[in-house]
Amino acid sequence: MDNVMLARALFGSSMAFHIIFATLGVGLPFMIVVAEIAYQVKKDRDYALMAKRWTKCQAILLGVGIPSGTMVGVMLSLLWPGFMEIVGQVIALPFQIEIWAFLLEALFMSIYVYASERLPAALRIASVTFVALGASASAALITDAHAWMNTPQGFRLENGQVVDADPWAAVFNPSWPTTATHVLFSAYLLGAFAIVSVAAVKLLARKRPERERQYHRKGLILSLAIGGVMSLLTALNGHETAQMLHRHQPEKLAAAEGLFETQAYAPLAIGGFTDKETRTIRGAIEVPWALSFLAGNRFDTVVRGLNDFPEEEWPPLFVHTLFNLMVGIGSLLIVVSAGTIFYRLVKKREYPRWLLRGLVLTGPLALIGIETGWIFSCTGRQPWTIYHVQTTASAATQSENLGTLFVTFIGLYVFMLVVTSLVLRYYFKRHPVTPDMLEAG
């Protein structure tokens, strides 16, 4: 494996690890806000207890998310010095503002954790809302740098030097609104379905008291409703993303759909595999005209194919599979959440065990969908680090011995995942929900 591939593998592994905690760190505070509002509306102490217990989980995850985010920052400097040279002059602003967003989150997290029981209802909701706003703002600002890599603006390169830098133009790059919205919706989605998975596991246990089962049913329904709405919003935002790719990254859209020939009335390819040799897509189900409609809201929209671009600038063609996996998981979550809520409204009885077993999988599936989406977005930009400005090869470090660094950090990430899982398991085993319900009255 050459130096560039090792650098990509190490940074990609670091991001894949951090994304778990970063995304849950945005999704869980949103769910805590929802539970607090439900408590104030329904006056049901179970929702206040949900918010309290989810906050304990958020605190543990935050303790891992902060150092893993720091490691990602270190990796950027170590592995991509050519990239950081441009970033520091053009797109450093969102990183600086993100510090204040994190401060907002940390400050109001302290207020909520230690003083929520003493606050009136309005201030209680306000404190946890600021926690969620800080977390969401952090995600949107960090995403800004990623969006700028896809649609760079706010500078020019002359003889390899940055000139005419305009940081605000870089911040408000064309793809940021769509990309940031997609990241936030998918984070809220993951927060909801993570709770669905836990509630389903608890309801599958046969010997739990009925009072505890009622608590978990409420959490399950609340999370399914939020997860279903966020899944739908993510899908609608995906339509906007396709239009953004059509305008700004047409080769990524073509690779995502295995489209080689430029054409109007372009079909949408579902499934199958892209064959580079024959320049066709094999085994796919094609929906006539659908890709053209996604790209331009018209069936006769002309969608550019890969043959319009030099082959050395094509993204890896396996991004078609990544794209299908991401979209397939999102669509499945919409169906599952809507079907489960409908079942509850119509049947009005206990969920069957087969359904609960299926719901256990929704959290892991949501996480896989998010990981797949990030891999698709970054891999689909290759061979560029900054689209049509800087290649990945020119951005990468020339240092040797990255293999040793790779093995060391992968071992560290596995260790941190195991320890985090054990801490979560130990804490909630030592603090079961029934005593908390008795204490809450």
TrEMBL record:
Protein's cellular compartments? Cell membrane
Q: Name one GO molecular function term.
A: electron transfer activity
Q: Which InterPro entries match?
A: Cyt-d_ubiquinol_oxidase_su_1 (IPR002585)
Q: Which Pfam families match?
A: Cyt_bd_oxida_I
Q: Iron: present as a keyword of the record? A: yes
What parts of the sequence cross the membrane? 15-39, 59-80, 86-114, 121-142, 183-205, 217-236, 317-342, 354-376, 405-428
Classify the main location: membrane
List the GO biological process terms: aerobic electron transport chain
Query: Where on the tree of life does the source sit, at the highest rank?
Result: Bacteria
Cellular component GO terms held in the UniProt record: cytochrome complex; plasma membrane
Which keywords does this chain's UniProt record carry? Cell membrane, Electron transport, Heme, Iron, Membrane, Metal-binding, Transmembrane, Transmembrane helix, Transport
Per UniProt, what is the membrane topology? Multi-pass membrane protein
**Family from the record:** Belongs to the cytochrome ubiquinol oxidase subunit 1 family.
Q: What is this protein's name? A: Bacterial Cytochrome Ubiquinol Oxidase family protein
Q: Which organism is it from?
A: Paenibacillus macerans
